[in-house]
Amino acid sequence: MNYVTHLECSMCRLELESERLWNLCPNCRKPLLVRYDLAAVRQKVTREDIARREPNLWRYEEVLPVRKDIYKLTLGEGYTPLITARRLGKVVDFPNLLIKEEGVNPTCSFKARGLVMAVSRAYELGVKALSIPSAGNAAGAMSAYASLAGIPAFVFMPRDVPKPFVAECLALGASVTLIDGLITDCGRVAANEVAEYGRFDVSTLKEPYRIEGKKTMGYEVAEQLGWALPDVIIYPTGGGTGLIGMWKAFAEMEALGWIDSKRPRMVTVQAEGCAPMVRAFQREEQFAEPWKNAHTVADGLRVPAAVGDFLILNALRESQGTAVAVSDREMMDGANLIGRTEGLFASPEGGATLAAFQKLRAEGWIRDDETVVLFNTGSGHKYAHLWVKERKDKG
Questions:
Q1: 7 pairs with which residues across the strands?
Q2: C-alpha closest to that of 85 among 387, 373, 390
Q3: Domain boundaries, the chain
Q4: Are strands 97-101 and 32-36 parallel, antiparallel or unpaired?
Q5: Rounded distance, CA 268 to CA 278, Å?
Q6: Which of 81, 135, 307, 325, by CA, is between 20 and 30 Å from 46?
C-alpha cells in the first residue's frame, strides 16, 4: 500500500496532486516535496518490520513515492555500511567517528539513491525520455536506471569532467552532450532541449523524487545506530539534495515514533573555489548568490548555484549546524588519510568531510564526547587521475 497524499511546495506551501508529472512549483518555481499519511504508516509499520526486510533502500517503501512494485527499479542500492573508523579515530584522537560509505552503491556513488527513485517514479508516470545536466555521478546513475527501465536518457556534462564519467554514461546507453562551462551551463542547454523535445528533466531538486531516494540515508543512519541519531553529520554539499532529504527524513521518523526529537547538527562542506552556501550561511542570508568562476577538483562540489539553497540553509540553522569551506589540498589529504587508515578509496568530496571535521575539532565546535558521521558520497575510482597527477608532481 502507498501512503502518498500530495505534493507540497517547499516555499509557498501550494498543494498539488501527486499522480501527474511536475517539476518545480508552478506558482513560485521552488522545489516540491512529497507528503505522506504518516499517521497511517505509524499504525501499519514498526521498526521491527523494517529490520526483517531486504537490505536496500526499498525497505522503507511506505515512505517512498512509487506505488506499484513493477515500477520499483533496483540494482541493490542503499543500506550501505556505517563504519566505525577505529584506526582513523586513533590518528585524529576521536573515538566516536563513523563513515557512511556511499561508494559501494551501484554506479559507485550516493547518486544511485536519488536517481533510482526519480527514474522509477517517472517510469510509473509514463515518461518517454529523461534529461539530466550533471557534473558526473548523477549522469551515470540516471543512465543506469533509465537503461533498466528502457527509457532513453540524455546527459549534459561539462566538457572537462573526468573521462570515466563520460565512459560510464556511454556504456549504459545514454546520449551524451559535452558543454563548455559548468553544470549551470549544462542546465541551460538541457532545459532548451527539454522544451524542444518533450523530455522529462530530473535535475537536482527540479522534480520531487530524487530527494525521496536521498532521504533514505537518514533512515539508514538512524536504523544502523539503533534508532538514534549522531550528534553531528558532516556532508559534502553541491546541490544539497541529500542534506535536505535527511532533514526531511528525521521529521518523518519522529512523526512515525521511530526516533525522538533529538537532531544532529548538520554541517555543509564546500570547496574554497565554490562555496555559495558557506558564504550565504556566514552572511545570514536566506538564499545563496551564484558563485563566480567556480573551480575545484571535486566535480560534485563544483555547483555554483542550487535551486534548494534556502532549504540547505534552513536545515543548517534549525539544527544549530554550520558551513565550512576546505581547499582542494585539504580534500585530497583527507581522502588519503581515510584510505591509509580505513581501506576506503574515498572521493575528494568524502575527503572534504574529514578536512571539515579536523577544522571544527580544532575550533572546539565538536566536543570530545560527541558522535560524528562523515559521508563519503562516492568512490575515488572515478577520480583516479588526481592521484596519478599527484604522483607525477612528486616525481
A1: 16, 34
A2: 373
A3: 82-109+210-393
A4: unpaired
A5: 8
A6: 81
Domain spanning 82-109+210-393: CATH 3.40.50.1100: yes
Name the percent of the chain lying above pLDDT 70.
100
Taking the C-alpha atoms of 186, 188, 189 and 190 in order, what is their torsion angle to the nearest 10 degrees?
80
CB atoms within 10 A of CB 96: 17
C-alpha cell at 366: 565538536
Helix (H) or strand (E) holding 8: strand 4-9
pTM of this structure: 0.96
β-partners of residue 236 are: 269
For the cut 90, the answer to whether the pLDDT of residue 1 exceeds it is no
Q: Which of 84, 81, 126, 117 is nearest to 100 (CA)?
A: 81
Contacting residues for 177 by C-beta, under 8 A, at least 6 apart: 154, 155, 156, 157, 189
Let me know: does 391 contact 384? Beta carbons within 8 Å: no
3-state helix, strand, coil in the chain (%, to 5): 45, 15, 40
* Terminal Cα-to-Cα distance of the chain (whole angstroms): 61
Whole-number Å distance between alpha carbons of 107 and 142: 10
Phi, psi of 210 (to 5 degrees): -60, -40
